[in-house]
Write a structure and sequence with these properties.
The chain has 583 residues and is an alpha/beta fold. The protein has 19 helices and 25 strands. The chain starts with a strand and ends in an 18-residue tail after the last helix. It binds fructose -6-phosphate (F6R).
């Protein structure tokens, strides 16, 4: 949702910023740009398209200066265009700014500034920030005071990095949109998240909401409500190599394949303290968005079945409106990035009502993890592909372990890593099926019980990267309406592990679809269920509890290969970004 990079130090800024932007491109890719300060002047180069396209056109590396800012955009206000690309400048051209987030009250400030003679060149909300800072500088404020005064007027969420000609520093401001600061030797970096900077440093400080930071080549100062504050430095264990594509054509397929290691690693995560919190809670609310919401649904089933405990699962953006808050509530917030604004706002709501918060995230130091009472990290390593793949199965693995731990049980992991590998070996088969279905525009995914959220996840993946219409239903729901859409040739993908008590009912649902011309793709370890399929995906036998971990994988392959069949880039799906920091 827009990537920000800043650099100040002893090296030439533009090539470094460009490298970091490339590592940041999963946050947005409709336009990009860099501004550097040199010789008392600001130079800006920017344009529409992915970073490589903008670089090919404008040669982004060829810019003088040892301080600069860069941006890769996911448009919110104003279509992708050169004028709307960041960095955005003020009237004097001596100030450049990059922004992530939304300034909700920008229209009224824009009117006021226009009345004072400021000339606007873009349709962005960001531009009001540039002109407002300019205005305060004109009134005699110092650089950082002018930025501080400007951001104090904004409603909404933002991360800003501001560059001014003639200053040996950058000023950063954060409210709702993440900003991290990375420390090198005689150089300091800023970025929207950690992976962008891993090539250069593993020492980070994390800005809090309401913070202003001033960075120069020697270090960083932080202020909050006008007062100096300290922000702890942390060493992160991720390395730059973990965020490389290696020999894979796309991050998405690399990360799907990495599940051979990431699922077993997640099953080793310690959930002891979290289980105590769940046991002690009077009621449990689970929050998440998209894929993380699906992981929450798996947890709900498992907790009920294994531990006889009820929990409610909420789409985080609906939480404030739909949750009844009572004392003794534990909120389990699930978010791989730990930065999703909908989840953060839901957690804020929960906190106002004194709920305890347990965060399940992948990113150490993320906003969610810093604000939580307790954390469980899923240890999936960096996920660069925009769609969540290995982080979903790692979330599910950790939540499975947690649900069983609440019941005083352990996950039976013996031989499970081998089963994951066996399922990963289905890649070729799923590629063939994707090819056979390359001209199909409507898909149904069905499953019962624990497999219903797996069906939802499979449909979401297909929609996200192959841009194909896909519906997911709990199989028993089909006959209550959507069966009317099952017509000759419509593929119905059935998640059908033999373990559990529902597969005989599933057989009935399959027959209902077949009777209307639906073509079944059966994923199962039961030959009886597989025999129902036009396409058969034979799965290794697995306990019902662990089945979501295995059955998700072929669906990820299906989405990936369907995306390639249709000629799209799986790493950069349209209208999506890796971490969604606007409501
Ligand atoms: C799906 C996907 C999104 C995210 C959602 C929540 O592939 O990537 O649906 O799952 O935006 O993101 P996190 O987990 O970072 O809160």
């Amino acid at each position: 949702m827009c990537g920000i990079v800043g650099y100040i130090g002893h090296r030439k800024a533009a090539p470094l910023i460009l490298g970091c932007l490339r590592a940041h491109e999963y946050r947005g890719y409709d336009s990009a740009g860099i501004a550097t300060a040199h010789d008392g002047k600001i130079t800006v180069k920017k344009g529409v398209g992915k970073i490589a396209e903008v670089d090919a056109k404008y040669d982004l590396e060829d810019m003088e200066g040892h301080a600069g800012i860069g941006h890769t955009r996911w448009a919110t206000h104003g279509a992708p265009s050169r004028a709307n690309a960041h960095p955005i400048t003020d009237c004097t051209g001596r100030l450049a700014i990059v922004h992530n987030g939304v300034i909700e009250n920008y229209a009224e400030i824009k009117k006021e500034l226009a009345r004072r003679g400021h000339k606007f060149k873009s349709e962005t909300d960001t531009e009001v920030a540039a002109h407002l800072i300019e205005e305060y500088l004109k009134n005699g404020l110092e650089f950082e005071a002018a930025v501080g005064k400007a951001v104090a007027r904004f409603r909404g969420n933002y991360g800003f990095a501001v560059l001014k000609a003639g200053e040996d520093k950058l000023v950063l401001a954060r409210n709702g949109s993440p900003l991290v600061i990375g420390f090198g030797r005689n150089e300091v970096f800023a970025a929207s998240d950690v992976p962008a900077l891993l090539r250069h440093t593993r020492e980070f400080a994390f800005m809090e909401d309401g913070d202003l930071a001033v960075i120069d080549a020697k270090g960083a100062r932080f202020m909050h409500d006008g007062r100096p504050v300290r922000r702890r430095r942390m060493h992160v264990s991720w390395t730059a190599d973990m965020a490389q594509k290696d020999c894979y054509p796309h991050f998405t397929i690399k990360e799907i394949e990495e599940q051979a290691a990431s699922i077993p690693a997640a099953l080793r995560v310690d959930v002891g303290r979290a289980a105590k919190l769940v046991r002690a809670a009077k009621r449990i609310h689970v929050l998440g968005c998209g894929t993380s919401y699906h992981a929450g649904l798996v947890f709900k089933h498992l907790l009920a079945r294994a531990a006889g405990r009820e929990c409610e699962v909420f789409v985080a953006s609906e939480y404030g409106e739909s949750a009844v808050m009572k004392p003794g509530t534990l909120v389990i917030a699930v978010s791989q990035s730990g930065e999703t604004i909908d989840t953060m706002m839901a957690v804020r709501h929960a906190r106002l009502h004194r709920a305890k918060v347990l965060a399940i995230t992948n990113v150490v130091g993320s906003s969610l993890s810093r604000g939580a009472d307790a954390n469980v990290y899923i240890n999936a390593g960096p996920e660069v592909g925009v769609v969540a793949t290995k982080t979903f199965t790692s979330q599910v693995a950790v939540l499975t372990k947690l649900a069983l731990a609440v019941a005083g049980r352990k996950v039976a992991v013996n031989g499970f890593a081998k089963k994951v590998k066996d399922v990963l070996a289905l890649s070729g088969k799923m590629k063939e099926i994707a090819h056979a279905l390359r001209n199909t525009d409507d898909f149904f995914f069905i499953g019962r019980s624990l497999s219903a959220p797996v069906a939802m996840e499979g449909a979401l993946k297909l929609k996200e990267i192959a841009y194909v219409h896909a519906e997911a239903y709990s199989a028993g729901e089909l006959k209550h309406g959507p069966l009317s859409l099952i017509a000759e040739g419509i593929p119905v993908i059935v998640i059908a592990p033999a373990a559990g008590e529902t597969h005989h009912k599933l057989l009935g649902n399959i027959r209902e679809c077949k009777a209307r011309g639906g073509k079944i793709m059966a994923l199962s370890d039961s030959s009886r269920l597989l025999d129902e399929g036009k396409w058969k995906v034979p799965m290794p036998p697995v306990s019902e509890e662990l089945s979501p971990l295995l059955y998700t994988i072929p669906l990820q392959f299906l989405a990936y290969y369907s995306c390639l069949e249709r000629g799209f880039d799986p790493d950069k799906p349209r209208n999506l970004a890796k971490s969604v920091t606007v409501e």
